[in-house]
Design goal:
With 182 residues, the chain is mainly alpha-helical. 62% of the residues lie in helices and 0% in strands. The chain contains 2 helices and no strands. The radius of gyration is 56 Å and the shape is elongated.
């Protein structure tokens, strides 16, 4: 029975609302306030900002604001100094890059020249050492020819004399005598 009475009462209220009775109309929903770009809640139109009533906080907030403004000014000055230093260093880096490129070119040229010189030195060594045996054989033949000429002239020669100098590829052996003891 209670449920039936509640149902009838609900139907009656719904009928009054649908018929247009102002007394039973539900209030229209207001849109929720959207936050601003800085994150603060927007105030509905027509309502003024009323500061909180913390009368003793004024001087403290002013001191804190002054302190924060000084810190900000100091940080802006540091930022400006760092930006100027960054510009100087960037210009210096650009100059050093050109110097490095020039030095790399010079090193490449010097390396190519050294490789050429090394090749020419290798060829020279090959030529000198390769023809050494031929030169020695030619000198031996010249000595033999001179020996025959001297014999033909009637001069007696001693038996063949060994060469007096060591070949260029082997170091000469130095003969050292021990120092006299005192």
């Amino acid at each position: 029975m209670k449920t039936r009475a509640i149902g009838i009462a609900a139907a009656f209220v719904a009928g009054l609302i649908l018929c247009g009775c102002e007394r039973f109309k539900l209030p229209a929903r207001k849109p929720a306030a959207q936050p601003d770009a800085d994150g603060a809640q927007a105030r509905p139109p027509g309502k003024k900002f009323i500061p909180p009533k913390n009368e003793g906080m004024g001087p403290q907030l002013k001191e804190q604001l002054d302190k924060e403004l000084k810190i900000r000014k100091q940080l802006e000055g540091e930022k400006q100094a760092l930006e100027e230093e960054n510009k100087k260093l960037s210009a210096e880096v650009a100059g050093l890059k050109t110097d490095l490129a020039r030095a790399n070119r010079d090193i490449d040229e010097a390396n190519a020249m050294m490789l050429k010189l090394e090749k020419r030195l290798g060829d020279w060594k090959k030529n000198v050492l390769g023809y050494r045996a031929e030169i020695m054989a030619g000198l031996h033949e010249n000595r033999q020819l001179l020996r025959r000429c001297v014999k033909a002239l009637g001069v007696e020669m001693p038996v063949e004399v060994p060469p007096t100098s060591a070949p260029a590829t082997q170091p000469a052996k130095a003969t050292t005598q021990p120092a006299p003891s005192k």
